[in-house]
Structures are given as structure tokens and as C-alpha cells.
Amino acid sequence: MYENGQGVPQSDEEAVKWYTKSAAQGNADAQNNLGLMYDNGQGVPQSDEEAVKWYTKSAAQGNADAQNNLGLMCENARGVPQSDEEAVKWYRISAAQGNAKAQLNLGMMYDNARGVPQSDEEAVKWYRKAAEQGDANAQFALGVMYDNGQGVPQSDEEAVKWYRKAAEQGDANAQFALGVMYDNGQGVPQSDEEAVKWYRKAAEQGDANAQFALGVMYDNGQGVPQSDEEAVKWYRKAAEQGDANAQFALGVMYDNGQGVPQSDEEAVKWYRKAAEQGDAGAQNNLGFMYQHGNGVPQSDEEAVKWYRISAEQGNAKAQLNLGMMYDNARGVPQSDEEAVKWYRKAAEQGDANAQFALGMIYEHGRGMDEVFLNQMKKLSNGTKSRLNKGMQRRNITWE
């Protein structure tokens, strides 16, 4: 009563006082609740050791909540030595009593091969038990398993079913996932409007993936009126959370002056953040900025560095740009062999400029054709990666 302020003024200290009296007499619920108070530092100084002490007493009496809580302490090395095996032991005991949180946790242990051999089938079994009790996290997890065909036959329809159940309970991961399904017409009729609806719900809860996706929808005018300003707003929210896709996208918006005043410096700032996280498009564009001295001091060497990093990830624009740097001895010694190597890689991915360059080299040899020279002079300025504004299905995972 004191903990929740029911009929009395809310007081964690008074709650602890009465839980302690009851727990000392062996009441299992009071022991678990007292453990929670120590766990969270409510009404008492936070203490993992005291939390474990009271969870253990309650768990030994068969309290399923305490058993699950004790499993969490073992899994996370709080107040006890870390042990996945002990965590599994307590999750299993609690799950067998029907505790939904323990069923979810046990499913996750099988999913991630922690304390037990990896088993998609066992993971699905326990996710389903928790999901059928209405646990939103388990419903989302079960949706992921159907989405990916792990432990069950792949089924977009079943994935949508479980994503929807979790999404309607407010689970942001599931809301984003359901948005993706509507975006791509998987398991449901394609609908930009429904995609936007669910992206927005997740985005407003702070989900970075959904914020980026919602930005893309505004960028393209899909399901909403086109708005560069709204696109920038949502890209920024995701970018500030560290989402590399959004950082690249925000860089593009500053680069082009879309929805924000044009700023090479801001473009470079966001390209760099994304590039340092491994985004190949941002790496290529950062190289371009160095090649031309846009927002940074001009440096062919830095341009080559970033073109190479991007090119080695398979970015066709960067492969073309790196080929041109070798072709024109910019930041690297001139090398026809290296130029051809990188032109070929880009050409094989369908890059028209690289195909043209490679064709002219094979037809005319090096530097002998005026048309070739003029065209290559134009190309030597480099090419930027564009933001891929088509939302592709993301690899939705449960962690």
C-alpha cells in the first residue's frame, strides 16, 4: 500500500519497513518485493547483494517472479558471479510455472546460445508461451522468428500478426517492424500511409530506425506531403542518436541545401560521423569533399583514403572515383593498371561512367582520343553517392 500510495501517502521507506517485517516472517511475496526495493534503490540504498539475498529466499519458496529476478542477477553478474547456466536454471524453473518474463528470457538464452546450445526451435517455443500471455517483447521476438524463418517456416503473414499484437501494446520495435512490412507490402497490402502511421508511432518513442524511415517518407513524399524540412527534422533526431544512415542522409541535405541552409561544413560533419561508422556512401562523399576542398582543406591524399575505404566495401561511385585518382595521379602515383582495376569493379556493378571510361580505354588506348580526354576531364571531378531514398527491407533482429 505504501509503495503505490494506495489509501496512504506514498512512501518507499514505509514500504520497505513493512516488507522487511513480513519478509522476516517468511512471506515469499514480501521477500521478492524487498529484493526489488534493494534492486532499484527505493527506500533503501541500492544493493545488488541485498537484492540477491531476498530474491534467493523468495525463489527457494517457489515464487516465480523472484526466480526470474534471480536469473537476471545471475545473467548480468549483479550481486553474484556471472553465470549463464545459473540464469538458465532459474529462468527455466520460473518459466515452468508460467511466468511470461521468464519464458521470454529463456527463449532469448536459446536464441543466443547462452547457457544452453543454440536452438531456434526452443527459442520459438518459449517466445510463443510468453507471447500467448500477452508479453509484447515476446510477441515482437516471435514475429522476428517468423519474419526470418528461424525455428518456424518463414511467414510474412505470421510475422505481421505478431508484430501487430506487440505494436498495439506500444512496443516501438514492433511498430517499426510493422511499418517496414507495410512499406514493402510483405504479409499485408503495400500502404505508404500505414507505413508512415507505424513509423511515426515508433519514431515518437525515440526509435532511431523509425525516425530515419519517417525522414525518408517525408523526403520522398510517400504517404505524406513531401517536405524537406520534416525530412531533416527526423533525420536529425536519428542522427543525433548515432544512426549512420540518418547521419549520411543529413549530410546530403546540408550538401544540397534541402530543408536547411546549404553548408559544406555541416555536410562534412555528418558525412564524417557516418563514415567513421562504416557507411560506404558517406565515405565516398567525404572523399569527394576532400578532393574539392569543400568544407575541409583540399587534400587528394585524404580523398584517396576515403574513396579506398568506400570502394573496398563495394561502393561503385567510390570505385569509379578511386580509378580516376589513379588515372590522373591525384594523391597516388599514376597507374593505368590500378585505374582499370577500379573502373572495372564499378563497371561490373552497372556504373555508366565507369563503363564508358573502361570502354574508351579498351577502344582507343591511353590518352589518344580527344573525346575520351574531354569526358575524362569532366569525370575527374568525382561523383557523389546519393541517398538511397527507397526504403528497403531492413534485417529486423531481436536482441
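Next protein, fold it too.
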Amino acid sequence: INDLLDQLQGSRYFSKVDLRSGYHQLRIREEDIPKTAFRTRYGHIEFTVMPFDLTNAPAVFMDLMNHVCRPYLDKFVIVFIDDILIYLKSKKEHEVQLKLILELLKKEKLFGKFSKCEFLLQEVHFLGHVVNSEGIHVDPNKIEAVKIWKTRKTPTEIRSFLGLAGYYR
């Protein structure tokens, strides 16, 4: 994640595109649909799109997104699962590249959830950080969450806290 964030240094304009139900935009190959079958008291069910609970779903989706965005990765685009961040120094260039990415997504039949998209920001919250022209900072909301975290006793609760706190080490 640090490598991704390092790419943002010096950028002044940001746009975020959040893909709508990301995994559900991935169609399962016809010959693989029977492999997803299961029975319930309501009958026989088969998935035609990638379900959210598959172990490999994030990796498969990331592979698709990296393939689709490959020409632009590390230049002005970061992809993290179903979040796409476009970053550039110039507003005019940002507008051109944003249009290019939106047209690419349309061509590939990948659709954003408009209510979660943000365009031409000068400060963006991304991967638990706040990024602007002055640099990259830990999101203050995450710091506050660590400060007010109640004492936990079970191993699961402790692991959850350590995961959050360790992310910002």
C-alpha cells in the first residue's frame, strides 16, 4: 500500500470511481456455472456472476482491473479492488484522463456507483489516508477510532484492533 501511496506525491487533482457491486460485474464462464451450484430448501441455485464469498474473488477481480487499466497504472491510475483513483498535477490533463478512464470502463462494461464517485477533488480519502498537494497523512478518523477503541478481551476482538493499529505502523 505504501508503494501505491508514494505514486500520489505531488498530485493536485484526484477523482475516485467506485465500481458498483464489483464482483457481480464479473460473469462466470458458461462451462463453470455448474461448479457454483448448491441446493437449499428453496431449490437448486447456480451463480452466473462472481459471488462475494468466494475465497479467490478479490484476487480474480484485481486481476481483471489490473488487466483493464494496465496501460495507465503507475502513470495516473491506482486500482485497489473496486476502487479506482485517478491522480494528476494539472486540472486540464486530469479532465482528459478522467474521460479516458470513464470511456474505458464503459467499453469494458464495468459500471461505477455514481453516488460513491468523487471528481476533481483537491483532497481525497484513500486507503485510510488523506492525500492532497501537501502530502499523504493518516486519516484523522482512523486515529480517533484507535484512541476510543474499547478494551477487548476475546482473541477475535484483539486481532481486529491489532489489524487496525498495525496498518499504520
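About the second fold: The chain is about 35% helix and 20% strand.
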